[in-house]
Amino acid sequence: MLGENPDDPRLDVKRLAGEPYHRLRVGNWRVIYDRQDQLRIISIERTKPRRDAYK
Hints:
By secondary structure, the protein is mainly beta. The protein has one helix spanning about 50-55; strands at about 15, 20-25, 30-35, 40-50. A four-stranded antiparallel sheet has the order 1-2-3-4.
């Protein structure tokens, strides 16, 4: 779903303040990723439990 439409309102996605990344919330896990909309590329930077994702 993220790869098809990263702006889908059903996804819990936010842009991270002060960083070029976005985060996808999946339960207690966070997927931190970079979007290159012009090229339609999503690069996963890290996937971690919530307590460790922003360190």
